[in-house]
Specification:
This protein is an alpha+beta fold. The chain has one domain: GIY-YIG endonuclease (3-Layer(aba) Sandwich). The chain is built from 4 helices and 9 strands, in the order ββββββααβββαα. The chain starts with 9 loop residues before the first strand and ends with a helix.
Length: 201
């Protein structure tokens, strides 16, 4: 599906190869002049506000992944998981998408990120001892609807609609990604053991 067919999203960044970092292969170039889906200007601070949103990864104009989040730190915080996925203890999702984006960029393709922001709605929020009125966002339902909308047109989910921990709807990760991820985890585990041993006196 072409991104041009989607009427509810707006672009936030181009992704390019990172030639300056020792570990991470990609970086996000965020648009300086942000505009929403209606063409209205947006302040950069919007990318750091806690909102529910769906993000679309687009390669050469084609949507290849639809995901969602509402994490603290907003849209940029979620994108940081992908950008910095070659450090620390990333999930296979962050690690795998990082490598797949690098592969597309190495092949000379254009990679972009778009988002669909969820409107907040007032609802009753229950705690342990009672409830109160508050603002909530339904990003998960929006993410599922976007994926189902895509499937209703294309007859399948987006190409990078991979399973989470090998479960649920979605495709299996490519073998080379899974092998690379396991190697990364083993190397990280060895580094942790060496660090722990060096601190024992």
């Amino acid at each position: 599906m072409k991104i041009s067919e989607v009427k509810t999203c707006f672009k936030i960044a181009d992704v390019v190869l990172n030639t300056e970092h020792a570990q991470n292969h990609i970086k996000f170039n965020y648009l300086e002049n942000l505009k929403d889906e209606k063409g209205n200007p947006l302040e950069q601070i919007r990318l750091r506000k806690r909102v529910g949103f769906v993000y679309l990864i687009v390669v050469n104009g084609e949507i290849i992944k639809i995901g969602g989040s509402q994490g603290k730190g907003g849209i940029k915080s979620t994108m940081n998981f992908y950008e910095g996925a070659m450090q620390g203890g990333p999930s296979i999702r962050s690690y795998g998408i990082h490598l797949l984006i690098k592969k597309e960029l190495d092949e000379g393709k254009k990679v972009e990120f778009y988002v669909i922001v969820s409107d907040e709605i007032e609802s009753e929020i229950k705690g342990l001892f009672g409830s109160e009125r508050g603002m909530v966002v339904a990003f998960k339902e929006m993410e599922e609807k976007c994926n189902e909308d895509y499937k209703s047109i294309e007859g399948k989910y987006p190409d990078w609609h991979f399973q989470s921990r090998g479960k649920g709807k979605g495709y299996r990760w490519p073998e080379w990604v899974r092998v690379s991820y396991e190697d990364y985890r083993k190397k990280n585990a060895k580094k942790s053991v060496k660090k722990d041993n060096s601190e024992i006196v």
